[in-house]
Design a protein that fits this description.
five-stranded antiparallel β-sheet; about 850 residues; SaeA fourth Fn3-like domain-containing protein; alpha+beta; 8 domains; 43 strands
């Protein structure tokens, strides 16, 4: 059992962990070797399927094995072809396995991103469910979550009920006093973002576990010093609650209650997060955790009504009915009314389902009984005995079966079973000499819904086929057809026309007594695997190749035969000399000149590498066309006009019938347009870059400043100079638009040629400098922005951005806009109130105008370190 143990460990266990998803890679599923060998493939598939049958006895593998067997029915033709020696279908299927696995993982990652939402957080149970639904591993999906910066965590446990009985009065008093929550009542709105998970913390509040009790004491002293009024009464209500229970618990519940309230108002995930951060002033990290926990709350439970409702929602109605009976026995009249109603509902559904199950047991029509049991299971999914009885109800038998010999196999078609309920599958068996008696009486044949193809039946013997309809564990009576006798035609028939002769080759089918060949109705002497016959050139000759079999009584039976034609011709003459040059009238076209040979038609083909054949070589036309691409050609007075469409080796081939003569060749180098041309300003110059093609040695560059002006410069740049300088740098005025034209160039046939040019335009940019100056007393500081430029102009839009911390803003989105102005005149001044941040911060201006380059002042004018 070493093979079974290895296969379970390496294939079945990973597939079961991925939600009973069979491996997409057939090399893994069937443990196929590399390279594929036809005989080894068939033996490996046989061993793997035997392991499936042995492992199906274990309950944990049963669902997975059923899926593997179901998919194997679709894959059976691939392995049958491989067993015959044709590995191409199996190789193509193997090539697509990895792509399907990648698509499945990409789909799982997309579902994970949807589940994470804007919070970028999911629970371990959600990851487990997504992995099972997408058919991938949990570890693989967890790694994808880490790569996508999605946090996997359990939701924080939030208080379900208020720790203080009079919390409603506290909430009303807070609303009257105009405070967002208890933390603001204690510290005001200057404390900064607060943290409530794992203990209270705020930037402006004292640190440590005694922070809130100390704040409560200070708040009580402040309100005691005030004149007594209605506000003092409400403040006293709040302070009494904060002294009665741990203030950390009450502050946390107050925040959570406000989030739950917004959740009940159908607020979205993003709206909840904004409410927590902006309205309640919660630190963003704590806000994400709070919103995540609120969105995934299931609420309290565990009582009789909750337990009964959970069973009913899960479809376990029979278990709910049993639980209701036990409640009646244990609690009697103390059962809550809601639980009693739920238990009564379960009892009524079970009673109706039992009546249906009993009626199905007395019903003679299996389809009608199956429907009754389906209705019973719809009412009570866990009704005892119903599902087992349903699996034992057979469908009606197949009414009609037809079998026809087709090539080397037999094609079967049948009418589906008249039964229309349940999942009905079909099985096909084959037997020699007589009809099969039932399931297992004969050789199994892979089948589909209403048809099958027996790829390797016995030859020249009577065959009988039977089709069985299966539903669940029950099988209908077998429907048979036959006899069918398979007498294949000769395979791989090939006629080769030569000079005054035709040669035929084929593969004789097994079981054939001999091969009969006729030409135009007259017999042709032939061996078992071929013939050669002298015939006149230039005439098409028609042949029929038939297989001859001996029947059971010794009489010869001739098959209809395979028809093929051949036209012998004299061998073609090769082209000795070939000249190819560019067409001056059309740079994308080339002209080919050569002496027309006496026999055959000349074709020009293109190869990516030098021709593997010597000039004068004769070979089949199909071999040339498989290795080369035919070039479109048009005869002209100056030669054969070609459109190569790229570089390579142009080869002249003379074709006569199915034979080609290899002639002279010419290397063609194409001058394509330069791809991905980019021109941009860098300081006082324009930088030009592009993807340099492999076949181009140099380029010609022309540029002009302004519109309508002649070219200001022209230069030739080699590839070495381009790579050494990292591109092309052109000195141009900064206040004028610049047009740059670049074209490939080189030597072809002793003359210099220039390819098609590409053009790019760089708009003019003006530099505007600005400075920031702070002024005014500390309690009312202002900022003044001074703008300077070489000439008067207007900025389309100017924005002053403020960013706290040690990092300067790089984009307008990196901070908060202190001011924004449209159509700003330059030179000029602008004023705005300075921020009151206590910590370090940065200020920086941004211009929303493509024609302007905004120059920053020194760093000391932008950075504020106080």
């Amino acid at each position: 059992m070493g093979f079974d143990d290895d296969y379970k460990r390496e294939v079945l266990e990973p597939a079961r962990a991925a939600g009973d998803q069979p491996p997409e890679d057939l090399r893994v599923r069937y443990r196929l070797g590399d390279p594929l060998v036809p005989g080894q493939v068939a033996e490996q598939v046989r061993q793997v399927r035997q392991c499936w049958r042995r492992s199906r006895g274990q309950l944990k593998y049963r669902k997975l094995i059923d899926r593997l067997e179901a998919e194997h029915r679709e894959l059976a033709p691939l392995f049958a072809a491989a067993e015959r020696g044709d590995l191409r279908p199996l190789t193509e299927r193997l090539r697509g396995g990895r792509e399907r696995t990648e698509r499945r993982l990409a789909d799982a990652r997309a579902r994970l991103a949807d589940a994470a939402g804007g919070l970028r957080m999911v629970t371990p149970a959600e990851v487990e469910e997504l992995a099972r639904a997408a058919g991938t591993g949990r570890a693989e999906l967890a790694a994808a979550a880490a790569a996508d910066r999605i946090e996997i965590r359990e939701p924080d446990r939030l208080p379900l009920s208020p720790p203080y009985a009079g919390y409603r009065k506290v909430r009303e008093s807070l609303d009257v006093l105009g405070h967002r929550h208890l933390a603001e009542f204690l510290f005001g709105d200057a404390a900064g973002p607060i943290q409530v998970l794992g203990g209270f913390a705020a930037p402006g509040a004292p640190a440590g576990p005694a922070a809130l009790p100390e704040a409560v004491r200070e708040a009580a002293e402040q309100w005691a010093r005030r004149t007594r009024d209605s506000s003092s009464t409400h403040a006293g209500t709040v302070l009494v609650a904060l002294r009665a229970v741990p203030p950390d618990d009450l502050v946390l519940y107050d925040v959570v209650a406000r989030l739950r309230e917004r959740r009940r108002q159908r607020a979205s995930e993003g709206a909840l997060l904004r409410h927590a951060v902006e309205d309640l002033g919660i630190e963003p990290g704590d806000a994400r955790r709070l919103v995540f926990a609120v969105l995934r709350e299931s609420g309290p439970g565990g009582g009789p009504a909750d337990r009964l409702r959970a069973l009913l929602d899960a479809g376990e109605v029979y278990a709910a009915a049993l639980l209701g009976e036990s409640l009646d026995e244990e609690d009697g009249p103390d059962v809550p009314p809601e639980a009693e109603l739920l238990a009564e509902e379960a009892r009524q559904r079970v009673a109706a389902a039992v009546r249906l199950r009993d009626a199905a047991g007395a019903e003679r029509d299996p389809d009608r009984a199956w429907r009754m049991l389906a209705d019973a299971l719809a009412l009570v999914r866990d009704l005892p005995g119903a599902e087992e009885h349903q699996r034992r109800l057979p469908p009606r038998p197949v009414p009609r079966v037809e079998a026809v010999a087709e090539g080397t196999g037999v094609r079967l078609d049948w009418a589906p079973s008249p039964s229309t309920v349940g999942e009905i599958t079909y099985e096909v068996v084959r037997r020699r000499g007589r009809s099969p008696g039932g399931d297992g009486d004969g050789d199994p044949v892979a089948s589909g819904a209403t048809g099958a193809f027996d790829v390797r039946p016995p030859v020249n013997v009577p065959l009988y086929y039977g089709v069985l309809a299966r539903r669940g564990e029950a099988v209908a009576p077998i429907a048979c057809t036959g006899p069918v006798v398979v007498r294949p035609e000769p395979q791989s028939v090939e006629l080769v026309a030569g000079d005054g002769a035709v040669t035929g080759r084929w593969t004789a089918p097994p079981g054939a007594a001999r091969i009969l060949v006729t030409r135009d109705g007259r017999p042709v002497p032939a061996e078992r695997d071929g013939f050669r016959e002298p015939v006149p050139n230039g005439i098409t000759h028609h042949y029929r190749i038939c297989a001859v079999y001996a029947d059971g009584e010794g009489r010869e039976v001739v098959t209809p035969g395979v028809v093929a034609s051949a036209t012998p011709n004299a061998p073609p003459e090769p082209v000795r000399e070939l000249t190819v040059e560019s067409d001056p009238a059309d740079p994308a076209r080339a002209l080919a000149r050569f002496a027309q040979p006496a026999g055959g038609t000349v074709e020009i083909v293109m190869l990516d590498a030098p021709p593997p054949w010597r000039p004068g070589t004769l070979l089949p036309v199909a071999e040339v066309r498989h290795a080369a691409r035919r070039v479109p050609a048009t005869p002209t007075s100056r030669g054969l006009a070609l459109r190569p469409g790229g570089g390579g080796w142009l080869l002249a081939v003379t074709v006569a019938g199915d034979t080609a003569a290899i002639g002279a060749c010419h290397r063609h180098v194409n001058l394509p347009p330069l791809p991905a041309l980019v021109a941009e300003r860098r300081g006082e110059a324009v930088h030009v870059g592009f993807d340099w093609p492999d076949d181009i040695a140099e380029v010609e560059v022309a540029y002009r400043a302004g519109t309508g002006s002649p070219a200001d410069g022209r230069l030739v740049v080699t590839r070495a100079a381009y790579e050494a300088r990292g591109g092309i740098h052109l000195p141009v005025p900064p206040d004028l638009p610049v047009t740059v034209t670049v074209a490939p160039a080189g030597m072809r046939q002793g003359s210099r040629v220039v390819g098609p040019a590409v053009e790019a335009t760089v708009p003019a940019r003006l530099q505007v400098r600005y400075d920031l100056e702070r002024s005014g007393p500390p309690w009312k500081r202002s900022l003044t922005i001074r703008l300077l430029a070489p000439r008067p102009l207007r900025l389309a839009r100017l924005t002053l951005v403020h960013r706290p911390g040690q990092v300067a803003p790089q984009r307008p989105e990196d901070g908060r806009a202190l001011g924004s102005w449209d159509e700003v005149p330059v030179p000029g001044e602008l004023s705005v109130s300075a921020p009151r941040d206590r910590g370090p911060y940065w200020l920086r201006c941004f211009a929303d105008d493509d024609s302007i380059e905004l120059v920053d002042p020194p760093v000391r004018r932008l950075e504020h370190n106080r």
